[in-house]
Amino acid sequence: MPVIYNEYENTFRLAVWSLSEPLSFFEERTQLSLSDKKYYQNISNTSRKREWLAVRLLLHDILGFWPHITYTETGKPILQNHSRHLSVSHAKSMVGILLSTNPHAGIDIEPTNRNIEKIAKRFLSEQELADIEKSKFDYSRILYWCAKEAIFKSVNESNIQFSKQIFISEVSENGTMKGEFISSKEQFELDMNFIELENHLVVWTT
Questions:
Q1: Which strands make up the sheet holding 166-169, listed edge to edge?
Q2: pLDDT given for residue 1 in this prediction
Q3: Strand, coil or helix: what is 109?
Q4: pTM of the model
Q5: What is the pLDDT of residue 117?
Q6: What is the model's pLDDT at position 197?
Q7: Which of 97, 104, 170, 187 could pair covalently with 178 via S-S, beta carbons 3.0-4.6 A apart?
Q8: Neighbours of 113 (CB within 10 A)
Q9: How far apart are CA 39 and CA 41, in angstroms?
Q10: What is the DSSP letter of 175?
Q11: Nearest 5 degrees, angle CA 160-CA 166-CA 168?
């Protein structure tokens, strides 16, 4: 299971692994608690099983110990045995993890060929649609979707409207952008980075 991207900064640690091994590879190498074993046994999809185990094996390789992960009611992962905030993403053949000092940690991975044209107007604001029309990136729509998903994962709220509460701006050719989240509970801005790896986009908060 090769690491295809590994970045360590003062405020965050990002790692992306390419999933090329069979499920048995992960089952043989991952140690699970009793509660995790019970949860794992209820996962029926083979791809989902592999992704779920890969996240834990990747975290173990980075941290040096097995992670204890719990989830909020909205599905946000909490790393109970480490001080940094955790976000994870997987896209069938790729898994990524983000460990950050920022409580609004979020990462998302999407294939660049994913077709989201039919839902574009539901997750993009009028300004974002206009910005995309002027963009030099061939995959601007999926980049904005990926960025908004990363911000969505960074908050512990439900029923979020992507076109009205999450906004993307200042997308740069050097792989940076700005994000903003607005709700009745909080409002904040985020610096974000993005890269393209093996026909996938990876976006994360910094």
A1: 107-111, 200-205, 187-197, 176-182, 166-169
A2: 56
A3: strand
A4: 0.95
A5: 87
A6: 95
A7: 170
A8: 9
A9: 5
A10: S
A11: 160
98 contacts 81 by C-beta, under 8 angstroms: no
All residues at 6 or more sequence positions from 188 whose CB lies less than 8 Å from its CB, including other chains = 104, 180, 181
First CA to last CA distance, the chain: 26
Amino acid at 160: I
Going from the first residue of the chain to its last (206 residues), give the mean pLDDT of each consecutive group of 10, the final group possibly shorter.
Answer: 86 95 96 96 96 96 96 95 97 94 97 90 95 90 97 96 97 96 96 96 97
Torsion of CA 19, 22, 23, 26, to 10 degrees: -70
> Which residue carries 């993307």 as its tokens?
168
